[in-house]
Fold:
Amino acid sequence: MIKAHKIRLNPTPEQAVYFAKAAGTARFVWNWALAEWNRQYEAGEKPTAFKLKKQFNEIRREQFPWTWEVTKNASDQPFLDLGKAFTAFFEGLKNGKRKGRPTFKSKKRSKASFYLANDQFELGDHRIWIPKLGWVNMAENLRFQGKVSGARITKTADWWFVSITVEMRHAEKADPRTPAVGIDVGLNRLATLSTGEGYENQAFLRTALGKLRQANKRLHRRVKGSKNREKARWQVARLHYRITCLRDDVLHKLTTRIASCYGIIGIEDLNLKGLLKNRRLSRSFSDAALGKLLNLLTSKVEQRGGQVIKVDRFFPSSKTCHCCGWKWEEMELSDRTFICQNKSCAYYQFAQDRDHNAALCILCEALRLIGLIDQT
Ligand SMILES: [Zn+2]
Structure:
């Protein structure tokens, strides 16, 4: 199992200049290789990452001697990355899963980053050693134990981070006795479990989003190309980053808890695209980042040997009584309680929380899908 740990770096101003230089070198080499690839491809040749790298090295001493000023990975890795990107692109054309064709990296819009192979750095206590640079302070130590396979240094807003990938020896295993759970994800509550437990959408996210709106307005009032506009742009980038962190933190905690407590998890496969068409709902939806929740949950549960069962999004979980299966066809989005009208049901005229009932329905449906219980 491979895990990555992203750690904030505290470089000195000189070190930050080095980072920017290395990232600039990596971007330059990528763009050079891509342009050359396209040119050769159009000329009917068969470019490969290996051939391009050789070609680059032949002219490097004369034309690009400055590429030696930073770690050699800044000019090695882009060839490998480009080769991989083209392989994925061509495979996508074959099997129908279209992947974008590799594009040029722009200084403004692309994320500054460069790679370090595991022989190009060394970890110390709260610091990382990088050739031609020395020790750089890290905000925390590497959290995982295992073989360090590589690292990538990236810039987000005006901070630098190192993302270290580690190959872990053992996967965490779930207790086989862990029970099953159904989860209803929604707008009002981020998640409701079939046990009745609820996770609220965090209010601080809303506050941060308010600030983001203000910062965006400020940005658009500033004159293009001015220093103040640049400042406002950084502020927006920082807020974006902060909101992502806050949201990811919530999602990570929630999914880790669910994955460590339950072995079988039923959840609705949401049609995010359809829901995002509704603009009013879209904000709370992107807040909750349901797609990310599904991805995180699936990977964490599967790592532990559990199973995530996605229930068809057309399954009417909110409108169905979890006990008897009676359907309340006229139920509206604003109805917060579900009341079963089936006289022979144990829940007849009993007010059930809408999301809790839905979570129970999802659990039943998930269990039915894996054949643990019979539908009849
Ligand atoms: Zn009922």
